[in-house]
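Tokens as discussed.
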């Protein structure tokens, strides 16, 4: 089975209770939005806080500069998701 690695950071780790997951792909290529359907806990957090508030990188490239939620994911890719920065 083909898979991709999804890694989350900082407060996302606390909310989700995991820091990295290997996710099996149903097809050779999938959209990022379809991949999220396999990670319902992550999808809910992203929806609750607004996708636009997170930095989502596919192989080190911001998916906003690609095709956003329609960005294609394929075997061996890795996704890094950073929560909104806080501070004061």
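Sequence:
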């Amino acid at each position: 089975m083909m898979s991709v690695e999804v890694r989350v950071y900082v407060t996302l780790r606390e909310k989700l209770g995991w820091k990295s997951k290997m996710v099996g792909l149903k097809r050779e290529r999938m959209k990022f939005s379809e991949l999220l359907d396999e990670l319902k806990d992550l999808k809910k957090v992203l929806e609750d806080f607004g996708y636009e508030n997170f930095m989502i990188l596919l192989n080190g490239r911001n998916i906003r500069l690609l095709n956003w939620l329609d960005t294609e994911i394929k075997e061996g890719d890795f996704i890094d998701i950073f929560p909104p920065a806080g501070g004061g």
